[in-house]
Amino acid sequence: MALPSRSDPWRLGPGGKCAKVAGVRAYPLFSLLLAGCTFGLQPSTPEGLAAFAVDPNDTSGGDTSGGGDTDTAPQGDAPTIDYIEPDFGPVTGGTEVTLYGTFASDVSVRVAGEEAEITSKAAKQGKLTFLTPSSPDAVAVNVQIESNGQTDRLANGFTYTEDGTGKIGMIGALEWYDQVGTYWGGATTDVGLGFLVPVEPGDFDWTKVYSSSPDTCASDQTYTYETDLVQADAGSGSTVQITNNGKSFTMRWDATTGQFAADSLTQADMSTGSTYDLASMSLNGASFTEYSLSPMTAVPAQFTVSAPAITGASAPQVAKGFTLSWSGGSAADGVIATLGMWDGAGTGYTETVTCYLRDDGSFTVPSGAFTKGWPVSRQLDIMVARVHFGDSTISYNNATASVMGEYIVYGAGFTK
User: Fold this and answer.
1) What domains sit in the chain, N to C, each tagged with a CATH number?
2) Which of 92, 163, 196, 302 is in the most buried spot, having the most CB atoms within 10 Å?
3) Using one digit for the tens of pLDDT, what is the confidence trace for 33-50?
4) Which pTM does this prediction carry?
5) Which residues partner with 242 through β-bridges?
6) Is the peptide bond between 198 and the residue preceding it cis, with omega within 30 degrees of 0?
């Protein structure tokens, strides 16, 4: 699966004005469309993103049509299953399931023909809990109860999912951009955006997107990180609700890019230096079930970049093999530096270098990092991001949701 890319960076034009430049692969996460000196999001289609086919035999999600707390079944009456929750769980078994219906005290439960361990039951309330047995396959199976010598069955009432333990089941990022410097020819714009990509459990490492190892840099001319992750379809009209510090915003499913996305987020929507929850999902015809994540990730606190001096009134001169320095805020899991070299005509980047760094306050960019050379008097876009790597567990398959939180300081300079 190729990752989404950021496009359309700022260009410093005549008289200090900033201009939009389209179609530039600037940063391997998401896509920005900049109108004048302001941000706006234009997701780009992830290349090579394999669609996840919904199994036509997967009829997960038993009857959830209502209620369930009923009077106890008189001795001799047939038992009934109204619904169960959750109606999914990994093949390893051990999922605690609550069943609502009518039954007597002699009730027993079978899942796919295997007897389940009942951990509690209250016949008067029509409620019992049980632990699912393990399953050799990830399939939808029947749930059956027996009471008073009679049975009731919920066909395809429970779906066994692939065990994602130790694998990644969602990737994504929540990002806050702090545009610095007064040399853009207009007011700077701070903005938040985010995306979430549900995937089948697989192997993935965010740090490898940027370079092969810590405190190294890689050029987009010579380095790519490929993953075999396969996206899961959330279904048209699906949404997720993200909350933090009493604030919330909605991410909507974009079928073209295969991800939940939100852009143009303001400080009314997001808080930096705080954690975020995926509070709820609303899915329509998804190839996976709804779940929540708490906490999902955290966006680091505000910090400053002192070298190069991108926060000043004039864009700084930047020499080959320059040093990045940052301070303030609070320690993060790492730092991502993204350096975009413009062409002489100001039509786009000729090369983008990304560095994955330890959060120790400084790093000297190797002189040979730019494989196409170091031309002088070129605009160099400089993005320094402190990042947090969230690692919450997805309930229905035990996979990890690897969602980055980023505070990104965005400035520019001119090469010398």
Assistant:
1) 80-161 (2.60.40.10), 165-415 (no CATH)
2) 196
3) 222 232 222 223 232 222
4) 0.76
5) 249, 278
6) no
